[in-house]
Amino acid sequence: MEGVYSWATAVTVCSVIACIVEILTSNSSLEKTVRFVLGLFMLCVIIAPIMSTVTQFGSMDFETEYKYDEDYDGMKEAQVKILKSEIGRLVEKTLTENDIKPIVTLITVDIDENDSIESIKAAVTLENADKEKAATAEELIRNKLGIECSVSIY
């Protein structure tokens, strides 16, 4: 609010000065030039706060600097753990739907330096009774889920 008050005061003071200058230069050959200059002067006084706001807004740095958070590694590990868990459930569900009961499902996720998933591998252990279904289980996981898989028998 103080900014508006100071702006209004500046406009008022400049208006008074412009009126005095105009009265002093009346009936002269430079009357049109003086009016033009005073008009520009008043326009500058009125627009100056807007221009400073725009300039200040334009110079703001909107890019936030990335700060390494100490919990970042912990968050990344938690995300990978959740990913492994969900993929494990998906593998088990796919096998169970095809009457194959896995004993153990181990999911391995390789992540590169850019935190992108490089590869996902599944290792499934089946009971000896499901020995003949090992090739089917491996094929299901590779073809249906697109995950590299190895099957072992317990």
Notes on the protein architecture:
The protein is of the alpha+beta class and 154 residues long. It folds into two domains: 2-58; 72-153, GMP Synthetase, Chain A, domain 3. The chain is built from four helices and three strands; from the N terminus they run H-H-H-E-E-H-E. A three-stranded mixed sheet has the order 1-2-3. Helix 4 (134-145) links the parallel strand 2 and strand 3 (148-153). It is rod-shaped and about 115 Å long. The model has no long low-confidence stretch (mean pLDDT 82).
Keywords:
154 residues; three-stranded mixed beta sheet; single chain; 4 helices; 17% strand; alpha+beta; 3 strands; 2 domains; rod-shaped
List the helices and strands and how they pair.
Layout lengths: L1 H23 L6 H28 L13 H26 L4 E10 L5 E10 L7 H12 L2 E6 L1
Parallel strand pairs: 2-3
Antiparallel strand pairs: 1-2
Helix pairs in contact: 1-2, 3-4
